[in-house]
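for the writeup, i need someone to sanity check this before i put it in the appendix. the sequnce is what the collaborator sent (i think, or maybe the updated version? ugh). structure was predicted straight from it, no edits. if anything looks off just tell me and ill rerun, i have time this weekend
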Amino acid sequence: MSSIRTLIRGGLVITASDELHADVLIEDGRVAALAAHGTAAAGTWTADRTIDASGKYVIPGGVDAHTHMELPFGGTAASDTFETGTRAAAWGGTTTIVDFAVQTPGHALREGLDTWYAKADGQCAVDYAFHMILSDVNERTLKEMDHLVGEGVTSFKLFMAYPGVFYSDDGQILRAMQRASGNGGLIMMHAENGIAIDVLVEQALARGETDPRHHGEVRKVLLEAEATHRAIQLARVAGSPLYVVHVSAEEAVAELAAARDKGLPVFGETCPQYLFLSTDNLEEPDFQGAKYVCSTPLRPREHQAALWRGLRTNDLQVVSTDHCPFCFRGQKELGRGDFSKIPNGLPGVENRMDLLHQAVLDGHISRRRWIEIACATPARMFGLYPQKGTIAPGSDADIVLYDPHAEQVISAETHHMNVDYSAYEGKRITGRVDTVLSRGELVIDRREFTGRAGHGAFIPRSTCQYL
């Protein structure tokens, strides 16, 4: 832990609730105090290190509550390790990730969690926590859920998609939800009707429709909306809260909004790819569309307006990345001639904070809402607040100096993710991370990486604070 006293002077501090010209004093890895810039209080502070934030935003480090480092999938594995992925996260202004430990069917949750602890231990440049993917719901794993909540793994992901891999049927989902309603865990749902989708995949391939664009066509909007509706009703029966991951379709947002209008504890996340990309990308020629294959899939552009509206009205609360990168060469190419064999996932952990700042400039959201959906709410949703997600006395000194005027072009040439393409190649945006502190230690110092593998610590989480 850093025992250096650091003073950040002269910036505009932006949190989910406030914008103020303030100086920030850091001691022992935490925020010690804030005082209005130029006041007597701030004038008396002394520090070992002073960082000039003039002309910059001083924002909380981003919390990306949905990443998949080193995830085995479709006969290969995500190309970012915990080391490369958390370094890229830091470059993008994200100082905490919540990754997914995976239970192997027939094995204990504990075994899956321990495997992920081992993958991440000593490798991470920024702090990390885990959700648990349930692949197998039975009496033993239901009991294990209680133990995991006790050790700070307080959310559990279930899949209505991927029969034969991660799929759970409605009975298993109901049992897990009932258990969570008792132990305080939060159920996260991949809401797509995987049984029906598999039929459509088989039929498309039989017709010779093998290109990447067909991935989006078979994973129909209605099957996302139907599964979202079904997940909400099961959660109502179980008396449990529900968090729907990677919402991509207008009709699915409508299901969440209707539930929330009834006062139900139902939450939704979307991702930058659904806000900035569309089926146009899946249709790129020469198999380039494979770069954009993820599930839920990219939708026609007209769905974007509903997602932005959901973020403004709080029918969607969080923007995470679902960062799950596979290289085009040698990984995405596994699906040449059969779109169903393309590994599902996009790189994005480095781009989220910048893309959402661009959304502020484009008029979609306010500056405070940017911090709310990218930092504060994910921290509250997953039991990390106020240690993470804000700048307040006692909070971890996870702080980003953000230059709102710097211009950049997103490109695989310059990104730090371990993947051979960018989903946003050539996109010009305004705003860039300048300096990043994690628990008071400089990880990025004026656009130079000064962090190290092993600085990042595992953070046990409390239960959902957003209810």
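The chain has a mean pLDDT of 97. The chain has 14 helices and 18 strands.
thx in advance!!
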